[in-house]
Amino acid sequence: MTRLQSYLLDAWHPGSEPLRPLVDPSTEDTLAWTAAGGLALGPALDHARTVGGPALRAMSFAERGALLKEMSRALHGAREELLDLSMANNGATRGDAKFDVDGATGTLAWYANLGRTLGDGRWQVDGEAERLSSGARFVGQHVRLPRPGVAVHVNAFNFPAWGTFEKVAVSILAGMPVLSKPATATALVAWRMAQIIVEKVALPPGVFSFLAGPAGDLLDHLGPQDVLAFTGSAGTGQSLRGGDRVLAGSVRVNVEADSLNAAVLGPDVGLGDDAWATFVRNVVTDMTQKTGQKCTAVRRVLVPRDRVQDVVDALGQELSRVVVGDPRVDGVTMGPVATEAQLRDVQAGIHRLSAQARVVLGGADRVAGQGAPAGKGYFVAPTLLVADDAFAATEVHRHEVFGPCATVLPYDGTAAQAARVVGLGQGSLVSTVYADDRDWLGDFLLGAGPWNGRVQVVSAKVADQATPPGMVLPSCVHGGPGRAGGGEELGGLRGMDFYTNRVAVQGDRGLLNRVFGGGVFGGGVSGGGVSGGGD
């Protein structure tokens, strides 16, 4: 049986016991084992800093982008194999597996193209130079320089492909080497992708490292120029932020955590309108895609009080068509949750919400999966709840059920109350609003926008064009305030801010012009730097 290895110090290492199993969540069969004991994590991080970092910083943006392009092509070439592994280890349907794997290769390709566009520069110029004296020669110029450390990426179980390589793409383009650690339970896809990268891409030594298995003492070796990017639960994120070494070294930390995302139906959207159809379709997709195991999935469905029954009927009709089972079986449209522990959490969460909201479809009971062995598999039905009072249903705004579950919440039709209900979640990655009324939208965005990292507005004219709200695009920021982690990823050039330091360089304009390649005072910079700060 396969035993996953870690790629450290430019070589593969099996690690020592204890072994941990990776399980097929549809059959409960063991697929592989992993172990991370006895690995030299401190030397591996030092190797990345002292060997991989200088190699990347010596490369231009275009050269770093070329590495990302090689990665994208190599992984795309193994697409069918990766989709099969995702169905086996993640319980993903083929469509869900594509969402993950193609998201990884697509983001790599997008940042590869950005690197090509940035060209021969090796740093970013941040804004225009400022005069610092009465004369014209002494100026100050802000620049963003790659941090001379290592980027440690700790990823969640739900997106082993996309979650891994969206971070890798931005880090490498910014000029920082990477140590990537996927969640152990679903590491099979990420591990195979790491193998492909090592085999197929001409990476400079020390640029890419991979840890298969528990983190052990990894974070005890971080230093002041290192960064830690984490995706997962708010509790774990808080623990990582409070680590002794992280605090002592002022290690930069980015957290993307729990999120009670909302879909908000505006009062001007009529039954049968294009925006209505998109609203119903998006909510159903977010509840069932990846079996609801998405950080961007809709958890709260805000509806004008007089439209609640219409929405429940429409969602119930669509959700009743969902076929739960082994994703490799024809006709199955939703697979299991990823692990037995995840199933227990989902069941407990549904019970917790049902104390303040009534279940109108599905429920917490384990269900039989089509095509799965009798009594096996971590299957649960799509579950829809309705709360009569959005403000009294405090658990709905406090606890995320990370599975195929959402709650319909009534509001009085005003933008102010809709925004207030959204804010009860204390921070979300994304909220989507379906409306055309300009004044209503303006009031809603002013009230709800600060509680979100991203707000998608679906109006009549874009109802057939808008991407699903759960789709994270590399050109727009991903993250959110409060309980969502307070972090920010992607967003074009903005994503590289986390991996760079802003430095104010003060000196002679003529000399700085030569250092930065010309054009410092009163404009952007070409040559050694690239003017930036946005997309």
Task: Give a verbal description of the structure.
It contains 14 helices and 23 strands. With 535 residues, the chain is an alpha/beta fold. The protein folds into two domains: 291 residues, 3-Layer(aba) Sandwich (Aldehyde Dehydrogenase, Chain A, domain 1), CATH 3.40.605.10; 216 residues, Aldehyde Dehydrogenase, Chain A, domain 2, CATH 3.40.309.10.
Strand order of the largest sheet: 15-16-17-14-13-18-19
Biggest sheet descriptor? 7 strands, mixed
Radius of gyration: 24 Å
Mean pLDDT: 92
Helical/strand content category: alpha/beta
Give the second-level CATH assignment, the architecture of the largest domain.
3-Layer(aba) Sandwich
N-end to C-end Cα span: 46 Å
Helix content: 25-40%
Strand content: 15-25%
How many structural domains does the protein architecture include? Answer: 2
Principal-axes geometry comes out as globular
What's the CATH topology label of the largest domain? Answer: Aldehyde Dehydrogenase, Chain A, domain 1
CATH class descriptor of the largest domain: Alpha Beta
Number of strands: 23
CATH superfamily of the largest domain: Aldehyde Dehydrogenase, Chain A, domain 1
Residue runs with pLDDT of under 50 for 5 or more positions: 518-535
Count of helix runs: 14
What order do the helices and strands come in, and which of them pair?
Blueprint: E1 2-4, E2 6-8, E3 11-13, E4 20-23, E5 30-34, H1 41-57, H2 61-77, H3 79-90, H4 94-118, E6 123-131, E7 138-146, E8 151-154, H5 162-174, E9 178-181, H6 188-200, E10 208-210, E11 227-231, H7 234-241, H8 244-248, E12 252-256, E13 261-265, H9 274-288, E14 298-304, H10 308-319, H11 340-354, E15 358-361, E16 383-386, E17 405-411, H12 415-423, E18 428-434, H13 438-448, E19 452-458, E20 477-480, E21 487-490, E22 500-508, H14 509-516, E23 529-532
Parallel strand pairs: 1-5, 6-23, 8-9, 8-11, 9-10, 11-12, 13-14, 13-18, 14-17, 16-17, 18-19
Antiparallel strand pairs: 2-3, 4-5, 6-7, 7-22, 15-16, 20-21
Helix pairs in contact: 2-4, 2-5, 2-6, 3-4, 3-6, 4-5, 9-10, 12-13
